[in-house]
Amino acid sequence: MANPEQLARLRGLYAVTPERADGGALLADVEAALAGGCRVVQLRDKLSPMAERLARARALRAATLRHGALLLINDDLALCRLVDADGVHLGRDDGDLAQARRLLGPEKILGASCYADLARAQAAEQAGADYVAFGAAFPSPTKPEAANATVDLFFRAKTALTVKVCAIGGITAANAPTLLAAGVDLLAVITDLFSAPDIAARAAAYQRLFEEAQS
Ligand SMILES: Cc1ncc(COP(=O)(O)OP(=O)(O)O)c(N)n1
Ligand SMILES: Cc1ncsc1CCOP(=O)(O)O
């Protein structure tokens, strides 16, 4: 379990990077999201060779530190350690969560994909996850085959769990309020953020939704 200061930062828009052939363009897009107020970024890069992923992770590490934002790495504990990222996000094919917690130590953030499976989320909490992610909340252009996590599941998750709850998949600034009403802590977004004509303005719109949900 990460420390309380880190955990308090797990709220708001969670920008998950799109696959971009051009690392410079990716960095510019993430910088725009950070300028708009996004404070949690995930490097999700399944296509680049290792050297390029390392370069991207280093660049994102510098950018997130400049903006006081968290950087999490999808799938790859070794890369997390190499760039001293704030933590990792792991899915069902990415190894054992309890072992990941042991390898990461107590301070780093551990996130777990739980699809539409509350029992899996309870096990992830026991294994030391700091947040659990359910999705797809809505049909996802990035992952059309993803499980369907209903709004009702998010309500139930908020009651059953003490860890933070993240929604992912097909989220837009228009449908996000339904998830925020269920008490979701993090909205993980790719398409609606990174395909926006003005990424900084879209990130700011999400942050405003969180502020409104809190008041
Ligand atoms: C925040 C967040 N939630 C879910 C996922 C999906 O993870 P996974 O199931 O391991 O699938 P891939 O992302 O590896 O295709 C995620 N990356 N981030
Ligand atoms: C990685 C992942 N896991 C479930 S849906 C998804 C993709 C989310 O991307 P988008 O915001 O474009 O639907």
Automatic annotation (TrEMBL):
Pfam families from the xrefs?
Answer: TMP-TENI
MF terms from GO for this chain are: magnesium ion binding; thiamine-phosphate diphosphorylase activity
> Per its Swiss-Prot or TrEMBL entry, what cofactor is needed?
Mg(2+)
* Catalytic activity field: 2-[(2R,5Z)-2-carboxy-4-methylthiazol-5(2H)-ylidene]ethyl phosphate + 4-amino-2-methyl-5-(diphosphooxymethyl)pyrimidine + 2 H(+) = thiamine phosphate + CO2 + diphosphate; 2-(2-carboxy-4-methylthiazol-5-yl)ethyl phosphate + 4-amino-2-methyl-5-(diphosphooxymethyl)pyrimidine + 2 H(+) = thiamine phosphate + CO2 + diphosphate; 4-methyl-5-(2-phosphooxyethyl)-thiazole + 4-amino-2-methyl-5-(diphosphooxymethyl)pyrimidine + H(+) = thiamine phosphate + diphosphate
Keyword Transferase, does the record have it?
yes
Gene3D superfamilies in the record: Aldolase class I
Do you know which CDD domains this protein is assigned to? TMP_TenI
Pathways per UniProt: Cofactor biosynthesis; thiamine diphosphate biosynthesis; thiamine phosphate from 4-amino-2-methyl-5-diphosphomethylpyrimidine and 4-methyl-5-(2-phosphoethyl)-thiazole: step 1/1
Question: Quick one: which residues bind Mg(2+)?
Answer: D75, D94
Domain (Thiamine phosphate synthase/TenI): give its ranges: 13-192
The UniProt function text for this chain reads: Condenses 4-methyl-5-(beta-hydroxyethyl)thiazole monophosphate (THZ-P) and 2-methyl-4-amino-5-hydroxymethyl pyrimidine pyrophosphate (HMP-PP) to form thiamine monophosphate (TMP).
Q: What protein is this chain from?
A: Thiamine-phosphate synthase
